[in-house]
Amino acid sequence: MIRKKILLIGDFGVGKTSLIRRYVDDTFDDSYLTTIGVKISKKLLELDGTTCELLIWDIEGATPIKHIPESYFKGAAGAIFVGDVDRNETLENVNSHIDRFLSLNPDASYVIAWNKADLLSDEQRREIESFLPAQALLTSAKDDQNVSELFTTLTREMLA
After folding, report:
1. pLDDT at 66
2. What is the pLDDT of residue 33?
3. 133-160: buried (b, 16+ CB within 10 Å) or exposed (e) per residue?
4. In the sheet where 136-138 sits, what is the strand order?
5. How far is CA 88 from CA 11, 93, 122, 148, in A?
6. Please, what are the averages of pLDDT over each run of 10 residues along the chain (160 residues)?
7. b/e burial code for range 103-114 (CB count within 10 A of at least 16 → b)
8. What is the pLDDT of residue 68?
9. The pTM of the whole model exceeds 0.90
10. What is the CA radius of gyration of the chain?
11. CATH number at residue 136
12. Which residues contact 95 (CB under 8 A, 6 or more apart)?
C-alpha cells in the first residue's frame, strides 16, 4: 500500500471541510464550522490496481494577515487548492497559495477546486467552464459534483 499526504488549502469559508466530509464520509452539512489548526482524515483509494491511503489534511483557512504554517506543508505529495465561485477574491488568492506550496514542495502535484458550483446558474456555469484552468474542476460538496473526481485526479497525478 502507498501512503500519500495531501493538503486542502484555501481561504476561510471556501468549503475545504465540506469537500473532505463529502469524499470521506459521503455527508454534507450546511452549518459552518471553522477549522482550527489541522484535522487529518484517512481514505483508501483503489486506483489502477494500486491501493493508496490518502492522509487528507484539512488546514485552517488563510487570510491576508494569517498564513498557513510552513510545517503543515512538509512531506505533502499533493494539494487541492479551493476557491469559492461566489467569492472572486478567494479564486484570485488560489495562485498565491499554489506559489507558496510549490516553493516548499516543488515536486508535488496539485488540482484546483472551484467550489460551491451549486450556487451558479446554468449560464454562469457555462461561462466559468469556458475559462477554467486545465487542472481545475467545478465542484460542489452539497451536490456531490466532481468531488470524487477531484481526489482521483490528484491521486493519479501523484502516482504518475
Report:
1. 67
2. 67
3. eeebbbbbbbeebbbeebbebbbeebbe
4. 38-47, 50-59, 2-10, 78-84, 109-115, 136-138
5. 11, 9, 18, 24
6. 96 94 92 76 94 94 73 94 94 92 96 96 91 91 97 96
7. eebeebbbbbbb
8. 79
9. yes
10. 15
11. 3.40.50.300
12. none
Q: Which domain holds residue 135?
A: 2-159
Report strand pairing: 2-10 vs 38-47: unpaired
- Which cell numbers hold the place of 18? 465540506
Read off the C-alpha cell for 54: 490518502
Cell (9 digits) for 79? 494539494
Domain count, the chain: 1
Q: In angstroms, rounded to a whole number, what is the distance separating the alpha carbons of residues 160 and 123?
A: 35
Report residue 144 as a C-alpha cell.
456531490
**Residue 83 contacts residue 91 (beta carbons within 8 Å):** yes
Give the whole-angstrom CA distance, residue 24 versus residue 112: 18
Kind of pairing between the strands at 2-10 and 50-59: parallel
